[in-house]
Protein backbone atom coordinates (compact mmCIF):
# COMPACT_ATOMS: atom_id res chain seq x y z
CA UNK A 1 0.00 0.00 0.00
CA UNK A 2 1.23 3.47 -0.86
CA UNK A 3 2.78 5.21 2.15
CA UNK A 4 0.53 7.89 3.63
CA UNK A 5 3.29 10.53 3.52
CA UNK A 6 3.69 10.09 -0.24
CA UNK A 7 0.03 10.97 -0.71
CA UNK A 8 0.75 14.34 0.89
CA UNK A 9 3.56 15.24 -1.52
CA UNK A 10 3.22 17.98 -4.15
CA UNK A 11 1.22 16.76 -7.13
CA UNK A 12 4.16 16.60 -9.61
CA UNK A 13 6.07 14.33 -7.22
CA UNK A 14 3.05 12.07 -6.86
CA UNK A 15 2.63 11.88 -10.63
CA UNK A 16 6.30 11.01 -11.02
CA UNK A 17 5.92 8.10 -8.62
CA UNK A 18 2.61 6.82 -10.01
CA UNK A 19 2.91 3.05 -10.25
CA UNK A 20 6.57 3.16 -9.14
CA UNK A 21 8.37 2.18 -5.97
CA UNK A 22 10.30 5.07 -4.41
CA UNK A 23 13.87 3.99 -3.78
CA UNK A 24 15.72 6.96 -2.31
CA UNK A 25 15.34 10.52 -1.04
CA UNK A 26 18.10 13.11 -1.38
CA UNK A 27 18.04 15.48 1.60
CA UNK A 28 19.76 18.67 0.43
CA UNK A 29 20.60 22.22 1.41
CA UNK A 30 22.42 24.99 -0.44
CA UNK A 31 25.86 26.06 0.76
CA UNK A 32 27.24 29.56 0.10
CA UNK A 33 28.25 28.90 -3.54
CA UNK A 34 24.88 27.22 -4.20
CA UNK A 35 26.17 23.65 -4.29
CA UNK A 36 23.70 21.04 -3.04
CA UNK A 37 25.02 19.47 0.15
CA UNK A 38 23.30 16.70 2.08
CA UNK A 39 22.64 12.99 2.31
CA UNK A 40 20.89 10.33 0.26
CA UNK A 41 18.75 8.04 2.42
CA UNK A 42 16.53 5.06 1.67
CA UNK A 43 12.91 6.03 1.26
CA UNK A 44 11.90 3.86 4.19
CA UNK A 45 14.28 5.74 6.48
CA UNK A 46 13.19 9.17 5.25
CA UNK A 47 9.57 8.31 6.03
CA UNK A 48 10.53 7.84 9.68
CA UNK A 49 12.90 10.78 10.20
CA UNK A 50 11.84 14.30 11.11
CA UNK A 51 15.27 15.82 10.56
CA UNK A 52 18.90 15.00 9.92
CA UNK A 53 22.23 16.61 10.77
CA UNK A 54 25.08 18.26 8.91
CA UNK A 55 27.98 20.25 10.40
CA UNK A 56 27.78 24.04 10.24
CA UNK A 57 31.21 24.01 8.60
CA UNK A 58 29.58 23.53 5.19
CA UNK A 59 29.05 27.31 5.25
CA UNK A 60 32.76 27.95 5.90
CA UNK A 61 33.92 26.03 2.84
CA UNK A 62 35.29 27.82 -0.21
CA UNK A 63 34.50 26.94 -3.82
CA UNK A 64 37.85 25.13 -4.05
CA UNK A 65 37.20 22.96 -1.01
CA UNK A 66 39.31 25.04 1.35
CA UNK A 67 38.07 26.69 4.53
CA UNK A 68 37.52 30.21 5.73
CA UNK A 69 38.38 30.84 9.40
CA UNK A 70 34.79 31.86 10.06
CA UNK A 71 33.80 29.77 13.08
CA UNK A 72 32.00 31.55 15.92
CA UNK A 73 33.18 31.96 19.52
CA UNK A 74 32.89 28.21 20.12
CA UNK A 75 35.68 27.59 17.63
CA UNK A 76 35.89 25.30 14.61
CA UNK A 77 34.18 22.33 16.25
CA UNK A 78 31.76 21.61 13.36
CA UNK A 79 28.56 21.76 15.36
CA UNK A 80 25.65 19.79 14.01
CA UNK A 81 22.79 21.73 12.50
CA UNK A 82 19.25 20.37 12.63
CA UNK A 83 17.97 20.16 9.05
CA UNK A 84 14.20 19.93 8.64
CA UNK A 85 12.57 19.15 5.30
CA UNK A 86 10.29 21.65 3.60
CA UNK A 87 7.88 19.13 2.11
CA UNK A 88 6.55 21.71 -0.34
CA UNK A 89 9.92 21.44 -2.11
CA UNK A 90 9.82 17.68 -2.67
CA UNK A 91 10.72 17.14 -6.31
CA UNK A 92 11.70 14.36 -8.67
CA UNK A 93 15.33 13.64 -9.55
CA UNK A 94 14.46 12.20 -12.99
CA UNK A 95 18.05 11.78 -14.20
CA UNK A 96 18.84 9.07 -11.63
CA UNK A 97 18.87 5.37 -12.43
CA UNK A 98 16.19 4.59 -9.90
CA UNK A 99 13.12 6.36 -8.56
CA UNK A 100 14.47 9.19 -6.45
CA UNK A 101 13.05 12.34 -4.86
CA UNK A 102 14.94 15.36 -3.58
CA UNK A 103 13.82 17.75 -0.85
CA UNK A 104 15.26 21.05 0.31
CA UNK A 105 15.83 21.42 4.03
CA UNK A 106 15.97 24.42 6.35
CA UNK A 107 18.83 24.75 8.83
CA UNK A 108 18.26 25.33 12.57
CA UNK A 109 20.60 25.40 15.53
CA UNK A 110 20.21 23.34 18.68
CA UNK A 111 17.76 25.87 20.12
CA UNK A 112 15.58 25.80 17.03
CA UNK A 113 16.72 29.18 15.68
CA UNK A 114 17.39 29.61 11.96
CA UNK A 115 21.09 29.24 11.15
CA UNK A 116 21.96 32.77 9.93
CA UNK A 117 24.50 31.65 7.30
CA UNK A 118 22.12 29.30 5.48
CA UNK A 119 21.29 31.03 2.16
CA UNK A 120 17.60 30.09 2.25
CA UNK A 121 17.35 31.59 5.74
CA UNK A 122 19.03 34.79 4.53
CA UNK A 123 16.42 35.18 1.78
CA UNK A 124 13.59 34.39 4.19
CA UNK A 125 14.89 37.07 6.56
CA UNK A 126 14.68 39.68 3.78
CA UNK A 127 11.23 38.55 2.62
CA UNK A 128 9.97 38.73 6.22
CA UNK A 129 11.13 42.35 6.45
CA UNK A 130 8.97 43.19 3.45
CA UNK A 131 6.01 41.37 4.95
CA UNK A 132 6.32 43.27 8.22
CA UNK A 133 5.78 46.43 6.16
CA UNK A 134 2.64 44.95 4.61
CA UNK A 135 4.34 44.14 1.30
CA UNK A 136 4.71 40.96 -0.70
CA UNK A 137 7.83 40.90 -2.90
CA UNK A 138 7.54 39.16 -6.27
CA UNK A 139 10.48 38.19 -8.46
CA UNK A 140 11.09 36.57 -11.82
CA UNK A 141 14.64 35.36 -12.54
CA UNK A 142 16.16 34.84 -15.97
CA UNK A 143 18.86 32.19 -16.22
CA UNK A 144 21.64 32.41 -18.80
CA UNK A 145 24.14 29.60 -19.31
CA UNK A 146 26.43 28.02 -21.88
CA UNK A 147 26.41 24.52 -23.32
CA UNK A 148 30.07 23.73 -23.94
CA UNK A 149 32.24 20.89 -25.17
CA UNK A 150 33.52 18.64 -22.39
CA UNK A 151 36.46 20.38 -20.77
CA UNK A 152 38.66 17.95 -18.82
CA UNK A 153 41.81 20.09 -18.66
CA UNK A 154 41.56 23.43 -16.81
CA UNK A 155 44.55 24.67 -18.85
CA UNK A 156 42.53 24.41 -22.07
CA UNK A 157 40.22 27.18 -23.26
CA UNK A 158 36.50 26.47 -23.08
CA UNK A 159 34.88 25.74 -26.46
CA UNK A 160 31.21 25.70 -27.49
CA UNK A 161 29.49 22.34 -27.80
CA UNK A 162 29.01 20.65 -31.15
CA UNK A 163 25.39 20.78 -32.24
CA UNK A 164 23.21 18.49 -34.34
CA UNK A 165 24.84 19.76 -37.53
CA UNK A 166 28.24 18.52 -36.36
CA UNK A 167 29.57 22.09 -36.20
CA UNK A 168 30.46 24.02 -33.03
CA UNK A 169 27.78 26.40 -31.86
CA UNK A 170 28.08 29.82 -33.50
CA UNK A 171 28.14 33.19 -31.73
CA UNK A 172 26.09 36.31 -32.47
CA UNK A 173 22.93 34.33 -33.23
CA UNK A 174 20.69 35.87 -30.57
CA UNK A 175 17.04 34.72 -30.75
CA UNK A 176 17.79 32.37 -33.65
CA UNK A 177 15.47 29.36 -33.67
CA UNK A 178 17.96 27.53 -35.88
CA UNK A 179 20.58 27.97 -33.18
CA UNK A 180 18.14 26.66 -30.56
CA UNK A 181 17.43 23.64 -32.76
CA UNK A 182 21.16 22.81 -32.68
CA UNK A 183 20.74 21.95 -29.00
CA UNK A 184 17.39 20.20 -29.48
CA UNK A 185 18.20 16.93 -27.67
CA UNK A 186 19.57 18.76 -24.61
CA UNK A 187 16.61 21.14 -24.53
CA UNK A 188 14.19 18.22 -24.86
CA UNK A 189 15.69 16.68 -21.73
CA UNK A 190 15.56 20.02 -19.91
CA UNK A 191 11.84 20.24 -20.70
CA UNK A 192 11.25 16.63 -19.65
CA UNK A 193 13.14 17.02 -16.39
CA UNK A 194 11.39 20.31 -15.63
CA UNK A 195 7.98 18.75 -16.26
CA UNK A 196 8.79 15.82 -13.99
CA UNK A 197 9.79 18.31 -11.28
CA UNK A 198 6.68 20.44 -11.73
CA UNK A 199 8.46 23.55 -13.04
CA UNK A 200 6.90 25.79 -15.65
CA UNK A 201 9.34 27.35 -18.10
CA UNK A 202 8.24 30.69 -19.53
CA UNK A 203 10.54 30.34 -22.53
CA UNK A 204 13.96 29.30 -23.87
CA UNK A 205 15.90 31.55 -26.22
CA UNK A 206 19.32 31.61 -27.86
CA UNK A 207 21.48 34.38 -26.42
CA UNK A 208 24.38 36.21 -28.10
CA UNK A 209 27.15 33.82 -27.09
CA UNK A 210 28.18 30.61 -28.83
CA UNK A 211 26.11 27.89 -27.18
CA UNK A 212 24.50 30.38 -24.79
CA UNK A 213 20.86 29.91 -23.84
CA UNK A 214 18.42 31.72 -21.56
CA UNK A 215 15.54 30.22 -19.60
CA UNK A 216 12.87 32.51 -18.17
CA UNK A 217 10.75 31.50 -15.18
CA UNK A 218 7.29 32.75 -14.28
CA UNK A 219 7.14 35.37 -11.54
CA UNK A 220 6.27 34.43 -7.99
CA UNK A 221 7.39 34.11 -4.37
CA UNK A 222 11.14 34.82 -4.01
CA UNK A 223 11.88 31.73 -1.92
CA UNK A 224 10.02 29.42 -4.29
CA UNK A 225 11.75 30.96 -7.33
CA UNK A 226 15.16 30.67 -5.68
CA UNK A 227 14.37 27.00 -4.96
CA UNK A 228 13.59 26.54 -8.65
CA UNK A 229 16.83 28.16 -9.82
CA UNK A 230 18.72 26.01 -7.31
CA UNK A 231 17.03 22.92 -8.72
CA UNK A 232 17.35 24.11 -12.32
CA UNK A 233 21.12 24.46 -12.17
CA UNK A 234 21.40 20.80 -11.26
CA UNK A 235 18.72 19.77 -13.77
CA UNK A 236 20.44 21.57 -16.67
CA UNK A 237 23.85 20.12 -15.81
CA UNK A 238 22.39 16.62 -15.75
CA UNK A 239 20.61 17.13 -19.09
CA UNK A 240 23.87 18.30 -20.69
CA UNK A 241 25.83 15.31 -19.40
CA UNK A 242 23.41 12.99 -21.19
CA UNK A 243 24.56 14.48 -24.48
CA UNK A 244 28.34 14.53 -24.04
CA UNK A 245 28.58 18.20 -23.14
CA UNK A 246 28.76 20.41 -20.06
CA UNK A 247 26.45 23.18 -18.90
CA UNK A 248 28.27 26.03 -17.19
CA UNK A 249 26.90 28.92 -15.16
CA UNK A 250 30.23 30.76 -14.99
CA UNK A 251 29.71 34.46 -15.44
CA UNK A 252 32.34 34.62 -18.22
CA UNK A 253 33.42 31.19 -19.46
CA UNK A 254 34.66 32.23 -22.94
CA UNK A 255 36.85 35.31 -23.31
CA UNK A 256 35.39 36.77 -26.49
CA UNK A 257 31.76 35.91 -25.81
CA UNK A 258 29.13 37.68 -23.66
CA UNK A 259 28.81 36.61 -20.06
CA UNK A 260 25.88 34.93 -18.33
CA UNK A 261 23.57 36.91 -16.05
CA UNK A 262 20.74 36.13 -13.69
CA UNK A 263 18.52 39.11 -14.41
CA UNK A 264 16.05 39.61 -11.56
CA UNK A 265 12.66 41.27 -12.15
CA UNK A 266 11.03 42.78 -9.05
CA UNK A 267 7.59 44.01 -8.19
CA UNK A 268 6.00 44.60 -4.77
CA UNK A 269 2.37 43.92 -3.89
CA UNK A 270 0.33 45.40 -1.08
CA UNK A 271 -0.56 42.37 1.05
CA UNK A 272 -4.05 43.65 1.86
CA UNK A 273 -5.17 44.81 -1.57
CA UNK A 274 -2.92 42.75 -3.85
CA UNK A 275 -2.11 45.92 -5.80
CA UNK A 276 1.32 46.59 -7.25
CA UNK A 277 2.77 49.42 -5.14
CA UNK A 278 4.84 50.59 -8.12
CA UNK A 279 1.64 51.78 -9.87
CA UNK A 280 -0.88 54.39 -8.70
CA UNK A 281 -4.68 54.41 -9.13
CA UNK A 282 -4.39 56.03 -12.55
CA UNK A 283 -1.60 53.67 -13.65
CA UNK A 284 1.30 56.07 -13.17
CA UNK A 285 4.60 55.45 -11.38
CA UNK A 286 4.47 55.86 -7.61
CA UNK A 287 7.02 57.23 -5.19
CA UNK A 288 7.69 53.63 -4.11
CA UNK A 289 8.69 52.77 -7.67
CA UNK A 290 11.32 55.51 -7.68
CA UNK A 291 12.47 54.74 -4.14
CA UNK A 292 13.08 51.10 -5.11
CA UNK A 293 15.16 52.13 -8.13
CA UNK A 294 17.16 54.53 -5.95
CA UNK A 295 17.80 51.69 -3.51
CA UNK A 296 19.30 49.58 -6.28
CA UNK A 297 21.42 52.48 -7.50
CA UNK A 298 22.69 53.40 -4.04
CA UNK A 299 23.29 49.94 -2.59
CA UNK A 300 24.17 47.50 -5.41
CA UNK A 301 27.84 48.58 -5.29
CA UNK A 302 27.93 47.39 -1.67
CA UNK A 303 25.99 44.20 -2.45
CA UNK A 304 27.92 43.35 -5.60
CA UNK A 305 30.19 40.86 -3.83
CA UNK A 306 27.06 38.75 -3.26
CA UNK A 307 25.63 39.15 -6.77
CA UNK A 308 29.06 38.72 -8.42
CA UNK A 309 30.84 36.38 -5.99
CA UNK A 310 33.99 35.26 -7.85
CA UNK A 311 36.98 36.82 -9.59
CA UNK A 312 35.56 35.57 -12.89
CA UNK A 313 32.30 37.45 -12.22
CA UNK A 314 33.92 40.80 -12.95
CA UNK A 315 35.12 39.74 -16.38
CA UNK A 316 31.46 39.90 -17.44
CA UNK A 317 31.17 43.68 -16.99
CA UNK A 318 32.65 44.61 -20.36
CA UNK A 319 31.53 47.64 -22.33
CA UNK A 320 29.39 46.79 -25.38
CA UNK A 321 29.32 43.10 -24.46
CA UNK A 322 25.67 42.64 -23.36
CA UNK A 323 26.42 43.38 -19.70
CA UNK A 324 25.92 46.63 -17.78
CA UNK A 325 28.88 48.68 -16.62
CA UNK A 326 26.93 51.20 -14.54
CA UNK A 327 23.73 51.72 -12.54
CA UNK A 328 21.83 54.03 -14.84
CA UNK A 329 18.13 53.28 -15.17
CA UNK A 330 15.75 53.58 -18.09
CA UNK A 331 12.57 52.19 -19.58
CA UNK A 332 13.05 49.54 -22.29
CA UNK A 333 16.82 50.01 -22.49
CA UNK A 334 19.04 46.93 -22.19
CA UNK A 335 22.27 48.92 -21.94
CA UNK A 336 21.43 50.16 -18.43
CA UNK A 337 22.10 48.22 -15.25
CA UNK A 338 18.55 48.88 -14.06
CA UNK A 339 15.83 48.42 -16.66
CA UNK A 340 12.09 49.00 -16.54
CA UNK A 341 10.52 46.60 -19.05
CA UNK A 342 7.47 47.56 -21.07
CA UNK A 343 4.40 46.33 -19.22
CA UNK A 344 0.92 47.15 -18.05
CA UNK A 345 0.53 49.16 -14.83
CA UNK A 346 -0.40 46.02 -12.88
CA UNK A 347 2.77 44.28 -14.04
CA UNK A 348 5.13 47.25 -13.61
CA UNK A 349 8.47 45.92 -12.46
CA UNK A 350 12.14 46.79 -12.10
CA UNK A 351 14.85 44.57 -13.59
CA UNK A 352 18.27 44.24 -11.98
CA UNK A 353 20.65 43.31 -14.82
CA UNK A 354 23.77 43.31 -12.64
CA UNK A 355 23.61 39.90 -10.92
CA UNK A 356 25.63 37.10 -12.51
CA UNK A 357 24.38 33.57 -13.09
CA UNK A 358 27.26 32.33 -10.95
CA UNK A 359 25.69 33.76 -7.79
CA UNK A 360 23.83 31.64 -5.28
CA UNK A 361 20.17 32.24 -6.27
CA UNK A 362 19.02 32.64 -2.68
CA UNK A 363 21.74 35.16 -1.92
CA UNK A 364 21.55 37.01 -5.23
CA UNK A 365 17.79 37.52 -4.90
CA UNK A 366 18.14 38.38 -1.19
CA UNK A 367 20.80 41.00 -1.91
CA UNK A 368 18.79 42.57 -4.73
CA UNK A 369 15.64 42.72 -2.61
CA UNK A 370 17.68 44.11 0.29
CA UNK A 371 18.88 47.01 -1.88
CA UNK A 372 15.32 47.77 -2.94
CA UNK A 373 14.10 47.54 0.66
CA UNK A 374 16.72 50.04 1.82
CA UNK A 375 15.54 52.36 -0.94
CA UNK A 376 11.93 52.08 0.21
CA UNK A 377 13.00 52.86 3.76
CA UNK A 378 15.29 55.77 2.83
CA UNK A 379 12.81 57.32 0.39
CA UNK A 380 15.43 58.92 -1.83
CA UNK A 381 14.95 59.69 -5.51
CA UNK A 382 17.02 58.02 -8.23
CA UNK A 383 19.04 59.78 -10.86
CA UNK A 384 17.28 61.16 -13.91
CA UNK A 385 16.18 58.46 -16.33
CA UNK A 386 19.01 57.76 -18.75
CA UNK A 387 18.60 58.46 -22.44
CA UNK A 388 20.74 56.74 -25.06
CA UNK A 389 23.46 54.10 -24.89
CA UNK A 390 24.61 53.61 -21.29
CA UNK A 391 27.77 51.84 -22.50
CA UNK A 392 29.04 55.28 -23.49
CA UNK A 393 29.04 56.37 -19.86
CA UNK A 394 31.56 55.69 -17.14
CA UNK A 395 31.42 52.54 -15.06
CA UNK A 396 30.31 52.96 -11.47
CA UNK A 397 30.47 49.45 -10.03
CA UNK A 398 33.55 47.74 -8.55
CA UNK A 399 35.64 46.05 -11.22
CA UNK A 400 37.38 43.44 -9.05
CA UNK A 401 36.27 41.20 -6.21
CA UNK A 402 38.64 42.75 -3.69
CA UNK A 403 37.09 46.21 -4.14
CA UNK A 404 33.59 44.75 -3.99
CA UNK A 405 34.40 42.99 -0.71
CA UNK A 406 35.71 46.25 0.75
CA UNK A 407 32.40 47.91 -0.14
CA UNK A 408 30.46 44.99 1.30
CA UNK A 409 32.39 45.01 4.58
CA UNK A 410 31.64 48.70 5.11
CA UNK A 411 27.90 48.40 4.39
CA UNK A 412 26.48 48.03 7.89
CA UNK A 413 22.98 48.98 6.75
CA UNK A 414 23.05 46.11 4.26
CA UNK A 415 24.38 43.74 6.94
CA UNK A 416 21.38 44.59 9.12
CA UNK A 417 19.06 43.43 6.34
CA UNK A 418 20.92 40.26 5.33
CA UNK A 419 22.04 39.43 8.87
CA UNK A 420 25.30 40.52 10.56
CA UNK A 421 26.47 36.94 11.19
CA UNK A 422 25.91 36.00 7.57
CA UNK A 423 27.82 39.11 6.45
CA UNK A 424 30.74 38.23 8.74
CA UNK A 425 31.01 34.64 7.54
CA UNK A 426 30.45 35.49 3.88
CA UNK A 427 33.24 38.07 3.85
CA UNK A 428 35.73 35.71 5.51
CA UNK A 429 34.98 32.86 3.09
CA UNK A 430 35.13 35.10 0.02
CA UNK A 431 38.39 36.69 1.11
CA UNK A 432 39.85 33.21 1.60
CA UNK A 433 38.86 32.38 -2.00
CA UNK A 434 40.30 35.67 -3.25
CA UNK A 435 43.60 35.10 -1.45
CA UNK A 436 43.82 31.63 -3.00
CA UNK A 437 43.22 33.09 -6.46
CA UNK A 438 45.95 35.69 -5.93
CA UNK A 439 48.42 32.91 -5.15
CA UNK A 440 48.01 31.46 -8.67
CA UNK A 441 50.26 32.75 -11.45
CA UNK A 442 48.26 33.02 -14.67
CA UNK A 443 49.34 32.21 -18.25
CA UNK A 444 49.02 35.92 -19.10
CA UNK A 445 51.61 36.79 -16.46
CA UNK A 446 54.00 34.13 -17.66
CA UNK A 447 53.59 35.16 -21.29
CA UNK A 448 53.97 38.93 -20.89
CA UNK A 449 56.01 39.42 -17.73
CA UNK A 450 58.44 36.52 -17.58
CA UNK A 451 61.03 37.99 -19.98
CA UNK A 452 59.81 41.55 -20.42
CA UNK A 453 59.91 43.19 -17.00
Structural summary, described in words:
By secondary structure, this protein is an alpha+beta fold. The protein has two domains: 14-121, Roll (Ubiquitin-like (UB roll)), CATH 3.10.20; 125-447, Glutamine synthetase/guanido kinase, catalytic domain (Creatine Kinase, Chain A, domain 2). It contains twelve helices and 14 strands. It has helices at 11-17, 43-46, 119-132, 177-182, 184-197, 222-241, 287-307, 361-378, 401-410, 412-418, 420-438, 443-449; strands spanning 24-30, 36-42, 52-55, 80-85, 91-92, 100-108, 135-149, 201-206, 212-217, 245-248, 264-270, 329-331, 338-340, 350-352. The strands form two sheets. Strands 7, 8, 9, 10, 11, 12, 13 and 14 form an eight-stranded mixed sheet that branches. Strands 1, 2, 3, 4, 5 and 6 form a six-stranded mixed sheet that branches. A hairpin with a 5-residue loop joins strand 1 (24-30) and strand 2 (36-42). Helix 7 (287-307) runs antiparallel to helix 8, helix 7 (287-307) crosses helix 9 (401-410) and helix 8 (361-378) packs across helix 10. The protein is globular, with a radius of gyration of 22 Å.
Quick summary of this structure?
This protein has helices at residues 11-17, 43-46, 119-132, 177-182, 184-197, 222-241, 287-307, 361-378, 401-410, 412-418, 420-438, 443-449, and strands at 24-30, 36-42, 52-55, 80-85, 91-92, 100-108, 135-149, 201-206, 212-217, 245-248, 264-270, 329-331, 338-340, 350-352. The chain is an alpha+beta fold.
What structural keywords apply?
2 domains; 453 residues; 32% helix; 6-stranded mixed β-sheet; Creatine Kinase, Chain A, domain 2; 14 strands; Ubiquitin-like (UB roll)
Amino acid sequence: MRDAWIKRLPEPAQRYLEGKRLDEVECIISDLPGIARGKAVPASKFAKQEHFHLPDSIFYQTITGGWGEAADDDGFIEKDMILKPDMLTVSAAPWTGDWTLQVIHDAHDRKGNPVPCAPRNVLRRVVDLYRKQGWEPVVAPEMEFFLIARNLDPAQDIAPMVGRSGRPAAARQAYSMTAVDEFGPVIDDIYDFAEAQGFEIDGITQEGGAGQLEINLLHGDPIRLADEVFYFKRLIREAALRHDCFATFMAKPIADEPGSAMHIHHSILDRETGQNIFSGPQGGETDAFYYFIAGLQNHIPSALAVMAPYVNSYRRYVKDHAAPINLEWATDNRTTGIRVPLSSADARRVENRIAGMDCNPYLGIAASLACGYLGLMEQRRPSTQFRGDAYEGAGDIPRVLGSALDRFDAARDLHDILGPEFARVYSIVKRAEYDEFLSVISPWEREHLLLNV
